[in-house]
Amino acid sequence: MSQNRFSEYPLDESIVKSLSVLKYTDPTPVQREVLPLLLNKKDVIVRSQTGSGKTAAFGIPLCQLVDWEERAPQALVLTPTRELATQIKDEIFNIGRYKRLKVEALFGKTSYQTQVKNLKQRTHIVVATPGRLFDHIERGTIDLSQIKTLIIDEADEMFAMGFIDQVEDILQELPQNRTTALFSATMPDAVKKLTEHFLKHPKYVEITDTDQSKKRIRQQYIRVEDEDKLATLKDLLIVDNPDSSILFCNTKVMVERLMKELDRADIKVDMLHGGMEQRDRTQVINDFKRGYFRHLVATDVAARGIDVADIALVVNYDLPDKPETYVHRIGRTARFENKGKTLSLVNPRDRASFAAIREAQGDVLEEIPRPSRATVDKYRLDFEQKQRKNPMIRKEKGLDFKEDIMKIHINAGKKTKMRPGDVVGAICNVEGVTGDDIGVINLMDVSTFVEILNGKGEKVLKALQSTPIKGRKRRVSRSNESEYERDLRNGY
């Protein structure tokens, strides 16, 4: 029988404590089904829609099963996009925070050498895109010999993006004696073939909450000519006046064009597409998740890593070609039992695509007319007033840990011959502090960052400011508060 509370599962106290901080108390349906299987090291195939809580469904067992003492990675998560890799890494890191687990994300368009340096330190879990991981395998810069659990996330999207050959090559490099779990929203033939070759007697889990999800999403569409799309969109945004929305386009060119038009109309908006630098993509996603702007214009791939619980509106400015893409898009709203709304602008050229979407979705799509001029004028003032106001900044999950965890910066690193053992030794010499109070240590070239757990940060900080570390005094300070944290504290 499935447990109804996370505290009822055979989990380390450290993990239960993290889940409590994250306000995870009751497992979602996919978590209730998957946790016992992965905790018992069973291969599993999971078919579940986005927003169902599947990251925690595999993240919790991964954190439970890894041995902290082992230096080489013990768990591997494969995911199709950089944004998803970052999102999953952050989620798993928070779940394993009190267990002091180090989680490394590997993906392209970021420093390969930095990743190599990080992998040389104790690393428990790796989250990676197939391309960058394969680079590390070919160059011999990652040790996969201790991998006990493999997670293949968003398998259908992975293969749609052409990663199937790389995934198969990676699987050949992993230990045969491992647990494998595959998560996918759909089951195309390529995914089925993979499960037949690489999974051992897998258990099949399908979360059939599709009908409930559909009921939470109000799906509407407007028939529109191309020359009227932009004006129609502006009218819709004025009338709906959502606190947050994602506006999907099919190409980066269209994303940039729509972004400029909305910006010209004084609508607080930003954009996201695969042609942007990774640093800029990450910044946009973080700013959107935190609430610095209300409207995001994006392509499909770039938006896969956006996990915001309260997106009020999803607009298909360009209708997608495939029903599966439509499902992924509308899944950005109505997450975690919330309600949401989607609007699709359908032009005459979309006839075939729209017919396939309607067939897949059933009778839930509702045609509506373009808002009348009188209706738009009625809501215009409210819209303009909201645009002039600063949005309310959202609090990220991980910030609640700061009440109990302090990150300390030490002005010394690898280039000054600093080692993790030197840091641990100095901290453990502080009266009343033990190794259990030391969290993740990140040793960089000229700096070291260490998390102090259990509310003992101030004591350790004060002691280290006057205590030699590796034979000499170092500059030790609280890790700088980010601009976002200051904004949150000051009410933006």
Percent range of helical residues: 40-55%
The CATH topology name of the largest domain reads Rossmann fold
Radius of gyration from CA coordinates:
24 Å
Approximate strand percentage: 15-25%
Shape descriptor:
globular
Protein name: DEAD/DEAH box helicase
GO molecular function, one term: RNA helicase activity
Biased composition (Basic and acidic residues): 478-492
InterPro entries: DbpA/CsdA_RNA-bd_dom, DEAD/DEAH_box_helicase_dom, DEAD/DEAH_RhlB, DEAD_box_RNA_helicase, Helicase_ATP-bd, Helicase_C-like, Nucleotide-bd_a/b_plait_sf, P-loop_NTPase
Summarize this structure briefly.
This protein is an alpha/beta fold.
What would your notes on this structure say?
The chain has three domains: 6-208, Rossmann fold, CATH 3.40.50; 212-388, Rossmann fold (3-Layer(aba) Sandwich), CATH 3.40.50.300; 404-481, Alpha-Beta Plaits, CATH 3.30.70. Helix content is 41%, strand content 16%. It has helices at 13-21, 29-39, 54-65, 82-95, 112-120, 130-139, 155-160, 164-173, 189-198, 210-216, 229-240, 252-264, 278-290, 300-303, 323-330, 351-361, 373-388, 420-428, 457-464, 483-490; strands at 44-47, 75-78, 103-106, 125-128, 149-152, 179-184, 203-206, 217-223, 245-248, 269-272, 295-298, 313-316, 340-346, 366-367, 406-410, 438-443, 448-452, 476-478. It has a seven-stranded parallel beta sheet, with helices on both faces. A seven-stranded parallel beta sheet has the order 10-11-9-12-13-8-14, with helices on both faces. Strand 16 and strand 17 form a beta hairpin. The longest helix has 16 residues, at 373-388. It is globular. It holds the Pfam family Helicase_C. This is DEAD/DEAH box helicase. Residues 478-492 have a biased composition (Basic and acidic residues). InterPro entries: DbpA/CsdA_RNA-bd_dom, DEAD/DEAH_box_helicase_dom, DEAD/DEAH_RhlB, DEAD_box_RNA_helicase, Helicase_ATP-bd, Helicase_C-like, Nucleotide-bd_a/b_plait_sf, P-loop_NTPase.
